[in-house]
Amino acid sequence: MTEKYIDKILKARVYDVAQETELEIAPSLSRRLGCKVYLKREDKQSVFSFKLRGAYNKMAQLSEDELSAGVIAASAGNHAQGVALAAEKLGIKATIVMPRTTPNIKVESVRHYGANIILHGDAYDDAFEYAMELVKEQGVTFIHPFDDPDVIAGQGTVAMEILHQCSDEIEAIFIPVGGGGLIAGMSAYIKHLKPDIKVIGVEPNDAPCMFEALKQGERVILDQVGIFADGVAVRQVGKETFRIAQTCVDEVVLVSTDEICAAIKDIFDDTRSVMEPAGALGVAGMKKYQEQYGLKDKTLVAINSGANMNFDRLRHVAERAELGEHREALLAVTIPEEPGSFRKFCQAIGHRGITEFNYRYADHEQAHIFAGIQLRNGEEEKKELLQQLFEMGYPVLDMTDNEMAKIHIRYMVGGHTNEVKNEQVYRFQFPERPGALLKFLTNMGQDWNISMFHYRNHGADYGRILVGIQVPGSDHDRFKQFLDEIGYEYWLEQSNQAYQLFLG
To answer: pTM for the full model?
Structure first.
């Protein structure tokens, strides 16, 4: 039974350290989805996550003897910060065991609150097992990140706030799931007061521990979990959280890495805040659910659960966001190895933006290029483009969902070749606008063969190209005239050591 949680949630001691966060309308998402979309801004807590609610509620109810002995926790980061902050507030000692894969920003945040940090293992479960060994050795109190009634009740206060903040009739609330503490507390409260509201959990498709548990009717232990969304990288849901979810959770939606990255961008566009991957799960699941069921004119709420993002992850997020939104297709296309073939291919693409173009000469008959193409109408437009290229005689492969291609091959197109003669290598910079790439290829005409080409749209005002062109000695003056007439800034890179080592 979950009724006991209503009283525990109402009496939870969270506001000594937590604030009642805003429930904000997301205007851009609302317009795109045709629904009223609200974001619960738990990223605005002092530790940039909801986790301090449950941690403090648990620790504030410990006995004097338990407090004096100190506490220990195992966490990928956000729960660790909650425990460390609560320990500082209560004036007690805290030890935090964290996986070695934890983003550095979370490790440093925990250290800031004065906790003792131990890095152990590669995932949460490794850290948990080691922490339990220390509990036996040192007699300290373990503060579970999710499978504890007081922790669950503390997290449930998020739902309490939403229901009194929102006067609209809510269709569904989308909640990130790791071990299940947040969704257990929130769903218990929501289903008691507003049973018609759908409670939808969201997990990465490479860490579906709650999805599999509900599907099989029992807790399962996943063989392995992906760590991109490290805040929810848990191999098994909690016993108590699963019990609650069985009666209070309507559905669990699984989302891909690309869809998480797209959600991070969506949240940034509406709030100018950057979520960590686990923090954007709610929005990613909401978008997928809305599309699947064709929801219109409904009120949807997503939990922005955390914003402890390592800065160096932003590069990967930006690369994958357009793919997750179905706004970019990655294609492997074979074209004839002859002057003018690049230009003909660009003309076949039409007015679509080219986001990426990778090529290196291999032989004198065929050229294999790796191209990124901007899409305006998602999957339907991609199907039309593939059919169009096929009908024009281009052998083409869709690499959009090929993980190896997205992570590795796109950056490895190239290498040395002994077949290229009279190659000159130039780096160009030009105003980034539709048609700029086609202008370059059209102005060059068919006089010289392109032996290498790399272009990637980085969202800046200027595009950048690295190109190898076969120019016989007798054509040098005419080629120099072409360079001056095209009007783009350029640099000769023939002597660049990077070119000589890897491409020359």
So the answer is: 0.79
